[in-house]
Design brief:
500 residues; alpha/beta; Aldehyde Dehydrogenase, Chain A, domain 2; 6-stranded mixed sheet; 23 strands; binds nicotinamide-adenine-dinucleotide
């Protein structure tokens, strides 16, 4: 690696901090395959320094008036809005998605900051006057203290915003451990937060890998851990952090199905399947990776998807007109290609083979969009989350068979039905064991004033991410029972308190 390659720092107590260890990771430009930067991988003691900075910032920040916190979130909203393009370009250079896609990510992250601007309303408590004679009962919600967020590579702005917007607005201080694959933008966000008026120490970034994560999970001053990533890591994080007495929400991987009934508009369903399968090169936790085509829908649908798949423009995300970029690393690209080979060996038919696409001859981690037909549960391409531009089609004879397949899958993140029959859609909504459901909507990521979360192996913990459940996650309830009696009426009473 050339010595001119930039080093990406941590952000602790309001300033960029270089690494105290010799450990670095390479950060690639996936469109060229070149190393564009190296990221510091924090040692445990450096993580301790970030947690200590966050701990010191708690008393002042939790005491800041709600309107002050709201005002700062408004300023942050304005700064992120004004820097949309710059932020999106930073995402493209390290993640590889197209600029339009990255701008969409920034817009969805911004929604979470906008939601947090309403924190005075969101933190209003409950009050019951005269719960008993002269006694009032009320509930208030208070911040937890130091909280941590650990985020995946595929949304380096939106997923951190799912967490930090509510966490900080609620009065907590935050330590972010972003993905080591695309870490630069987290430092830019930290700078914007400082400009917005967030006091030093309230938002900190530790770059790193498992070493940094493990320290966050065991440190006694970290009260809660919010995680998004793959299922094996999510499960481990949930088990470790809960064992250490922390509050945890750990969102995992996915295998999202799209059920297409015979009455659906085939062209519309094909447009949706192609957009949701190949957008961001399939590196979205809400990507559609399996179409379940029911009965007579199958043949025309596969043909319509095949036709559209061939037309996708693939290339560097910064070049105008490209609709799909590269994958995140060479290893990941090759792993996805291996799934295609294995699918063919297991009896699936490769209707469109992305490995043959001309783009694969370029530098960069490119793979063409791939369509597999005749896929069944039990094949590796069905059972595993591939996280690449590979769409599998499973054929089912009936709605019931399709539902059986979907509900038999261990993941339960997102799902969609395409139909023109309102009754069938309503039945689907009732039957399906998945947390986020789309009716003629292929990527049902809820707006910021609802909450996001899957079921089964897609989420470990009770509370979903962002929105009202995010506010609940980052606060704890305190219930106060209060009376202001005339002291002359006071007497000893050993009976258990009851309403009088
Ligand atoms: P990942 O699990 O490899 O990494 C996520 C985070 O965990 C990163 O910060 C990483 O540094 C850290 N990490 C990785 N291995 C670790 C280990 N052994 N111990 C401790 N920490 C570890 O995930 P990724 O490849 O960055 O992201 C893709 C995955 O995230 C996919 O599975 C995708 O479905 C999932 N995802 C889920 C959602 C959701 O909302 N459910 C959203 C986005 C992404």
């Amino acid at each position: 690696m050339s010595p001119a390659v930039a080093a990406i720092s941590h952000w602790i107590a309001g300033r960029a901090v270089t690494s105290d260890s010799e450990r670095y990771g390479d950060v690639f430009n996936p469109a060229t395959g070149e190393v564009r930067a190296r990221v510091a991988l924090a040692s445990s003691s450096q993580v301790d320094g970030a947690i200590e900075a966050a701990r010191r910032a708690v008393p002042e920040w939790r005491a800041a008036p709600l309107s002050r916190r709201s005002e700062i979130m408004f300023k942050l909203r304005e700064l992120v809005d004004a820097n949309r393009r710059h932020i999106a370009e930073m995402i493209v250079l390290e993640h590889g998605k197209t600029l339009a896609d990255a701008l969409g990510e920034v817009a969805r992250g911004l929604e979470n900051i906008e939601f947090a601007c309403g924190i005075p309303q969101l933190l209003k408590g409950e009050y019951s006057e005269q719960s008993s004679r002269g006694i009032d009962v009320y509930q208030i919600r208070q911040p937890l203290g130091v909280v941590a967020g650990i985020t995946p590579f595929n949304f380096p702005v939106m997923v951190p915003a799912w967490m930090f917007a509510n966490a900080i607005a609620c009065g907590n201080t935050f330590v972010l451990k972003p993905s080591e694959r695309d870490p630069s933008v987290s430092i830019f966000l930290a700078e914007l937060m400082q400009k917005a008026g967030i006091p030093d120490g309230v938002f900190n970034v530790v770059q790193g890998d498992k070493t940094a994560v493990d320290r966050l999970l065991e440190h006694p001053d970290v009260q809660a851990v919010s995680f998004v990533g793959s299922t094996p890591v999510a499960k481990r994080i949930y088990e470790t952090a809960t064992r250490n007495g922390k509050r945890v929400q750990a969102l995992g991987g996915a295998k999202n199905h799209m059920l297409v009934l015979p009455d659906a508009d085939i062209a519309m369903a094909a447009d949706a399947a192609v957009s949701a399968a190949y957008g961001s090169a399939g590196e979205r936790c809400m990507a559609i990776s399996v179409v379940v085509a029911v009965g007579a829908a199958a043949d025309p649908l596969i043909e319509a998807i095949r036709e559209r798949t061939h037309k996708i423009k693939i290339g560097p995300g910064m070049e105008d007109g490209n609709e799909m970029g590269p994958l995140i690393t060479r290893e990941h690209r090759n792993r996805v290609a291996t799934y295609v080979a294995q699918a063919a060996a297991e009896g699936a038919s490769v209707a469109v083979d992305g490995r043959d696409h001309a783009i694969c001859g370029r530098n960069g981690f490119f793979l063409g969009a791939t369509l597999l037909d005749g896929v069944r549960p039990g094949m590796r391409c069905y059972d595993d989350e591939i996280f690449g531009p590979v769409l599998s089609v499973v054929r089912a004879d009936t709605y019931e068979e399709g539902m059986h397949i979907i509900n038999g899958n261990p993941y339960g993140n997102g799902v969609a039905i395409f139909t023109r029959d309102g009754g069938a859609a309503r039945q689907f909504q009732f039957d399906v064991e998945v947390g986020l459901v789309g009716i003629n909507v292929p990527i049902p990521v809820p707006v910021a004033y609802y909450s996001f979360g899957g079921w089964k192996a897609s989420l470990f913990g009770d509370l979903h991410m962002y929105g009202p459940e995010g506010v609940q996650f980052f606060t704890r309830a305190k219930v106060v029972t209060s009376r202001w009696p005339d002291p002359s009426t006071s007497k000893v009473d050993l009976g258990f308190p009851q309403v009088r």
